[in-house]
Write a structure and sequence with these properties.
Layout lengths: L13 H25 L11 E5 L6 H17 L3 E5 L6 H8 L7 E6 H9 L11 E16 L8 H10 L5 E4 L5 H13 L4 E4 L3 H10 L4 E5 H9 L4 E5 L25 E9 L4 H14 L3 H9 L3 E2 L4 H21 L6
Parallel strand pairs: 1-2, 1-3, 5-6, 5-7
Antiparallel strand pairs: 3-9, 4-7, 4-8, 4-9, 4-10
């Protein structure tokens, strides 16, 4: 039987065309609904817990900075920020963890001095410190403090230079390990004061200071956090600070440059990084939170107690700063023939 319907001028049947059009529209509508169902709206960052990896053991200066940072930025971000301590191999283990993490802003690195010097200390790293990370913010800069045993006859930087020149290689300075800020600050002093003191590596500040108190070593270029309370109690004698300018935390102490080694300056620092290819809006959101955090009362307290210089920089400023640091320490490491054992 012939199909019913009006025949159009082009030979098609009007009813058939109308039915097909309605079917096509129905299929299209179903496809749109299905697409919307499987493609959720993009949520605003962050939508889950943020983790900051600290490449040192808990309890040290970097850990304190990281935990204060986490506490302050989680209020601004509206999500919990936790700390994961992954020490070992001169910060390489923790740093690699972040380098290989998803670039989504949920795994961050609290980087320090080691981030700038490890490329010069190690022939090969399991990550590229330039290509595998995206800068978020330079949080703070810090300095070390030169201390001796109160029983020492060294009362000033001038005395230290005189003693070191009179006894080449015999004076020992304690470090936290090869390539640490305490080590390279001492090696920079050797180079610029034209003296030769011998570095003695320890597995951290505590055992080194213990030997300084016991008279086994002569001097340390140690962190403010590790020495401030002992200096205040008279158990250590402070000679100078390693920063370019005097510190508000120790206004009575000269800089090493003022005390006899013109041009000397050695800083440490704390900077936040994300994995490379982290979206720019995520970096901007984290940077905004850091800028607000460094103005908080908690950071103001650290500024006074730890001898910090708060920054809260733009991402590109962290890149420039670390680039300069990497260049200057590379030369010293090469000239002093420093190698990681």
């Amino acid at each position: 039987m012939a199909s019913s319907g009006i025949i159009n001028h082009d030979g098609t049947r009007g009813k058939d065309v109308a039915v097909r059009q309605w079917l096509d529209l129905g299929i299209l509508a179903c496809a749109v609904v299905a697409a919307l169902a499987v493609t959720p709206a993009r949520a605003e960052y962050p939508e889950k817990i943020v983790k900051i990896v600290v490449p040192f053991a808990a309890g040290g200066g970097t850990d304190i900075i990281a935990r204060t940072t986490a506490q302050e930025i989680q209020t601004d971000l509206g999500k919990s920020v936790i700390i994961e301590n992954k020490p070992g191999a001169g910060t390489i283990i923790g740093t690699q963890t972040v380098a290989t993490s998803e670039p989504d802003g949920y795994s961050l690195l609290m980087a320090t001095f080691a981030h700038a010097v490890n490329p010069s200390l190690y022939n090969k790293l399991p990550f590229d410190p330039h290509k595998d990370f995206a800068a978020v913010s330079l949080i703070a800069r810090s300095f070390n403090i030169v201390v001796v045993n109160p029983a020492s006859r060294i009362n000033s930087i001038s005395d230290l230079i005189t003693e070191a020149k009179a006894n080449p290689g015999k004076l020992n300075f304690g470090t936290f390990g090869t390539g640490t800020s305490a080590h390279l600050a001492g090696e920079l002093f050797n180079a610029m004061a034209k003296v030769k003191m011998t570095a003695v590596p320890y597995k951290g500040a505590a055992p080194a200071i213990s030997d300084l108190l016991g008279g086994q070593i002569d001097v340390m270029f140690t962190t403010v956090a590790s020495a401030a309370s002992l200096v205040a109690a008279g158990q250590l004698r402070a000679l100078a600070v390693t920063s370019a300018e005097r510190s508000a935390a120790f206004p009575q102490l000269p800089t090493i440059a003022e005390a006899g080694v013109p041009g000397y300056a050695a800083e440490s620092w704390y900077g936040l990084y994300a994995p490379a290819r982290t979206p720019a809006p995520v970096i901007a959101r984290l940077n905004q939170a850091i800028a607000k955090a460094v103005q908080s009362g908690a950071f103001k307290k650290l500024e006074a107690n730890e001898g910090l210089i708060m920054v809260g920089s733009a991402p590109e400023e962290l890149d420039r700063y670390v680039g300069r640091e990497e260049e200057r320490w590379r030369k010293l490491i090469k000239d002093a023939n420093i190698e990681v054992q």
